[in-house]
Amino acid sequence: MNRINHWLRSQLGISKTEANGMVILIPLLFLFIISPYWYRNYKAQNAELQIEDQLVLDSLVAVWRKSIIIDSSAGDIEPYAVHRYSKFKNKRFESTERVDKRPKQKVYKTKIEIFDLNTADTIKLRQIRGIGSVLSKRIIKYRDLLGGFTNKDQLKEVYGLKDSVIFALDSMSTLSATFTPAQIDINKIDEWGLSKHPYISRTLAKAIINYRFQHGPFNQVADLQNIHQLDSLKLRQITPYIKFQEP
Fold first, then answer.
1. Between β-strands 242-243 and 184-185, what pairing exists: parallel, antiparallel or unpaired?
2. Is 102 within the bounds of a domain?
3. DSSP readout, 204-230?
4. Are residues 34 and 53 in the same domain?
5. What is the mean pLDDT of the chain?
6. Backbone CA torsion sign across 120, 118, 198, 163
7. pLDDT tens digits, residue range 59-80?
8. Boundaries of domain holding 231
9. pLDDT one-digit tens code per residue, 119-141
10. Where is pLDDT greater, at 146 or 2?
11. Within-domain flag for 75
12. Helices (H), strands (E): how many in the chain?
């Protein structure tokens, strides 16, 4: 050990303490490197031993079954040795053959009835997989801000709804053909009230009110086409939610 210590100090130019540390560290590193190979070899040998033990035990049982004569009047009773072997075998290999003995729970599926999207409450909406209390309240809040859904594509505008949830809602809900959404009297409402609608921004509301002030009340949808901030897509969106009554 002293010779190795002296050699390390002379070759590497290190202190006595550092040389002692290296003498300890090098064997540890060697053990650390070879330990995975040793473990795999040990595991493989252990598996082979288990197979060999199994074959030996099976051969012993075969010999016992042939050598032990069971009295026919006693019925078909298995020899004590075989019984002990079976018990030993189960205990020997119980770690590799685990059986889940817990009772299986029954799953009850509730049939979801188709509901109207404009009258459904949070309880009905929560029947859809993926909709909890938060999303159900958010859908109803957005529905109330709109004045009601006029088509199911509007579900895509609800924040947080995944495509799978939207598809499920589309499949399990209907929109009544006689439904009329809540409408805004565009000739009476002020700028603040108009901007509360999800489809109308504060800038667009201001442009509509200013145009009405300069040109008089709106009589039809075509009158709104003269407002530059209102494109054709936005006009189609807001048309179901406005009405034209003179002040």
1. parallel
2. no
3. HHHHHHHHHHHH----SHHHHTT-TT-
4. yes
5. 79
6. positive
7. 665 655 655 544 444 444 445 5
8. 184-243
9. 999 999 999 999 999 999 999 99
10. 146
11. no
12. 10, 4
Position of tokens 């729970």?
105
Asked if residue 143 and residue 162 are part of one domain, the reply reads yes
Q: Could you tell me what percentage of the chain is helix, strand and coil, using 3-state DSSP and rounding each to the nearest 5?
A: 60, 5, 40
Tokens standing for residue 188? 């009476």
DSSP string of 102-130, one letter each residue: SPPPP-PPPPPPPEETTT--HHHHTTSTT
User: Is this prediction's pTM over 0.85?
Assistant: no
CATH number, residue 229 = 1.10.150.280
**Angstrom distance (rounded) from CA 210 to CA 194:** 12
Q: In angstroms, what is the C-alpha Rg of the chain?
A: 41
Identify whether residues 88 and 33 lie together within a single domain: yes
Which of 33-37, 38-42, 122-126 comes out lowest in average pLDDT? 38-42
